[in-house]
Every structure is written in structure tokens, then in C-alpha cells.
Design a protein that fits this description.
By secondary structure, this protein is α/β, with parallel strands linked by helices. The chain has two domains: 255 residues, FAD/NAD(P)-binding domain (3-Layer(bba) Sandwich), CATH 3.50.50.60; 109 residues, Rossmann fold. 29% of the residues lie in helices and 21% in strands. The strands form five sheets. Strands 1, 2, 11, 12, 13, 14 and 17 form a seven-stranded mixed beta sheet that branches. Strand 4 and strand 5 form a beta hairpin. It is globular and about 70 Å long.
């Protein structure tokens, strides 16, 4: 089967690439082993979290691009970053929308009891941005080991409580199980009753980010009505229910627009002829299927997504065999301390691209003419240290497809 474009990877970068291509009227196939890192890490949308809270994101990005010419943002440009973010936001109209706080970074409470800078916040978390000392009441659940209400409340000089769960008593509780329970009106009624017995002067109630998978705003509004306080979600350890919401929204929209998905089996082989990819092969034992396209987008992420692999000597890209920019020796991959103030050099490893997002070697020579590379697999960024991962994925996913169909 032939497509206009095949997108390899179902993380945020691949989904943004697919959305951009579909809006151009292209025939799109998206291939991936799973949900990418959306289901693991994403709760909010980080663009450049190291900027001061007082600095407008647009101004900060413009300056960042000037100072970091090799960074993926420099390949996109501040104007196109704005357009990419707008394209992302168009998929999330109210009530479950993503918001900025005066177009600057804001601080959201986390499941570790800290404050974390981020840029775009879903409506279910926005209440936590205004958290004041003593105003919050944190609610956890017995058996749910990823959220300890009292420990999270303590740094904010707030109170917390842990609720029992009759439906799941005496066994470990998962985020997905709690998310399903939260969608039951009877369950919400029972926990709201317990909260009202214990709450005092608090005006805000913080829950782990598990307020339902399908309609978290309805869950939030119902709890607010029953408790009389403002409810907000707090990001927690993986899996990320908010990240799954993002994935499900993209997937449903893309399918409605005619995109095809191959979720599960991974690509077993790519067929290259000269500087072009002719087709990919997907092994789903005992069946082998081949798919071809005029263009291919590589959006496989870094190590967690399998976009980059490492052995005892080097880091390599396994699918197309592309060279990877990396420190000269393994001894230079990491700082001496794991929790060093300086980012580990391994996090700058990645694939080099030209101004059209096509892969090149260290001398700038074009390697593949009909393959474009996007997302965190790109070189020259420290997305963890910069707190820029989602921004890089959204901006480069959008821009790579724009460049692919310019030619």
C-alpha cells in the first residue's frame, strides 16, 4: 500500500507531524510500537522551562535561538514555533483546553511536593498554579503508592488525607484504575462526602492527576459542586493519565480525518536505494507487510522510545543506520555526579539535520533525500535540563512536514 507520507513514531512529534500532513490533504500512515512517551511523562506542555517566570515566552525563545544556533528551535524559528503551538491548541478547545498564564512560565505543584515550571497547563491543573500556603487540601488514596497526600501537602503548609477505597480494598491501586473509578458518579459522591467531613478552611483540593480519562472536566466540576472548593490535578509518576488524554484526542481526530494507524508491531526493515527510502517492512508473525511512501518522517524519540540505542562503545540510530552526534568516548557521556547541576553530555546526542530537517552527517552532507527527522531524536538540545521536550516535539513535528512538502 502506498501513502503520501509515512510517519514512524506515535509520540507527540509524530502525532503533530501527522496532524500537519492531514491538514494538507495528504494520505498518511502512522506506525508505532506504543503511545510514545506521552503515556509516561507528559502532563503539561514544556516549551522552555528554564526561562524566568517574568519573561514572555516569545521573547525568551527569540533570544534562545540567537544564542543556540544548533538547537532544534533554531531550525524552526520563533514565528513557526508560535504557529505549531497554535496548531496543537486547536485540538483542545474548552472545556479541556491548555492555557498559558500571561504567556510566561508558571509553577505547578508536583507529586514530589515541589513546584515545577511549565508553559501550557490543562484546565484540570490550572487551579494548582494559584496554590497558596494553607489554602490547599491534598487527597490521596490508600493503596495508591504514587501519591502521598501528607508529604505533598507539607511543603506548601497545607493538609492532606488518604481515603480508603472499598472497591479495591487490600490490593494495590493503579492510576488507570483510579481514573476509571473517578468517572463513576457514585464513587465521586462517596469521596466528596468524606472530604467534606475533613476539610476546614481550605478553598482548593488537590488530587493526583487521575480525574478520568474521557471527561476530566466533568469529573472536576462535579467534585467542585459537591465539595464547595476548587479542584485541581497534580502531576504524578508514570503512567500519565493526562498524557493518555492527549494521545487519545490526537488519535480520534486523525482517524476521523482519514489517517491510518499501525499500532503494535515495529518496523523490521527499511529498504534504501541510493539516498531514498523505497519502503518499510513490518513483521507481525507470521505475516510480513510492506508499505511505501513518497516521504517518511522519523519521529522515534531517544532511548526510551527506541529511536536511539547504545552499546558499550557508541550510540546509534537502528532503523536507517543514521550517524549520531555524540561525545567522542563513553567516559564523556555522563557527569561525575548523577545529580550534577550540569546536564549530562549524552543528552545532546542525536541525529543532525539540514535546514529542511533531512538527515546529514557531521560534514553537512545529505544522507537521505525523502526522510525527514523530528522530535527529541534530534541533536543539540538538553530537553530535560531545558524543560523543553514537548515544545521541541510540537514545533519540529509541525515544521518537518511543512519542509517535506515544500519540495
Amino acid at each position: 500500500m502506498h501513502f503520501d507520507i509515512i510517519i514512524i513514531g506515535m509520540g507527540l512529534s509524530g502525532l503533530m507531524a501527522a496532524k500537519t500532513a492531514v491538514e494538507m490533504g495528504k494520505k498518511v500512515l502512522i506506525v508505532g510500537k506504543g503511545l510514545g512517551t506521552l503515556s509516561i511523562f507528559s502532563n503539561t506542555i514544556d516549551v522552555l522551562g528554564i526561562l524566568p517566570q517574568t519573561e514572555k515566552m516569545r521573547d525568551g525563545l527569540s533570544q534562545w535561538i540567537k544564542e543556540h544556533p544548533g538547537h532544534p528551535y533554531s531550525k524552526v524559528g520563533s514565528e513557526k514555533i508560535d504557529k505549531a503551538l497554535s496548531s496543537f491548541l486547536s485540538l483542545f478547545p474548552p472545556p479541556y483546553s491548555f492555557q498559558t498564564m500571561d504567556e510566561t512560565n508558571c509553577l505547578v505543584p508536583t507529586g514530589a511536593g515541589t513546584l515545577r515550571p511549565t508553559y501550557l497547563v490543562p484546565a484540570t491543573m490550572s487551579g494548582g498554579v494559584c496554590l497558596r500556603e494553607g489554602s490547599g487540601f491534598m487527597v490521596g488514596f490508600r493503596g495508591f503508592k504514587d501519591f502521598y497526600a501528607n508529604q505533598i501537602a507539607s511543603p506548601f503548609k497545607c493538609r492532606g488525607m488518604t481515603l480508603s477505597l472499598p472497591e479495591t480494598l487490600h490490593r494495590e491501586v493503579t492510576a488507570t484504575a483510579l481514573s476509571r473509578l473517578m468517572e463513576k458518579p457514585s464513587f465521586r459522591k462517596s469521596i466528596a462526602k468524606e472530604i467534606k467531613k475533613n476539610i476546614k478552611d481550605e478553598t482548593q483540593i488537590g488530587f493526583p492527576a487521575i480525574l478520568g480519562m474521557n471527561d476530566p472536566v466533568e469529573v472536576k466540576n462535579d467534585l467542585e459542586e459537591q465539595t464547595g472548593a476548587r479542584v485541581f490535578e497534580i502531576p504524578i509518576l508514570p503512567p500519565s493519565i493526562p498524557g493518555m488524554r492527549i494521545f487519545n484526542c490526537f488519535k480520534a481526530w486523525l482517524i476521523r480525518k482519514g489517517a491510518s494507524f499501525l499500532l503494535g508491531p515495529s518496523i523490521s526493515k527499511t529498504f534504501l536505494k541510493g539516498k531514498r527510502c523505497e519502503k518499510i517492512e513490518i513483521l507481525h508473525p507470521p505475516i510480513v507487510n510492506s508499505y511505501s511512501a513518497d516521504r517518511y518522517i522519523l519521529a522515534t524519540g531517544r532511548f526510551i522510545g527506541g529511536g536511539l540505542n547504545a552499546d558499550m562503545e557508541k550510540i546509534y540510530e537502528p532503523l536507517f543506520g543514521l550517524p549520531v552526534f555524540q561525545p567522542p568516548s563513553r567516559q564523556e557521556w555522563f557527569q561525575k555526579s548523577f545529580f550534577s547541576d550540569q546536564p549530562h553530555s549524552i543528552h545532546q546526542a542525536g541525529v543532525l539535520i539540514d535546514s529542511f530537517f533531512r538527515p546529514v552527517d557531521e560534514k553537512g552532507r545529505l544522507l537521505l533525500e525523502n526522510v525527514w527527522v523530528t522530535g527529541t531524536i534530534l541533536a543539540h538540545h538538553h530537553c530535560i535540563h531545558e524543560k523543553s521536550r514537548e515544545g521541541i516535539e510540537i514545533a519540529t513535528g509541525y515544521m518537518a512536514v511543512q519542509k517535506a512538502f515544500e519540495r
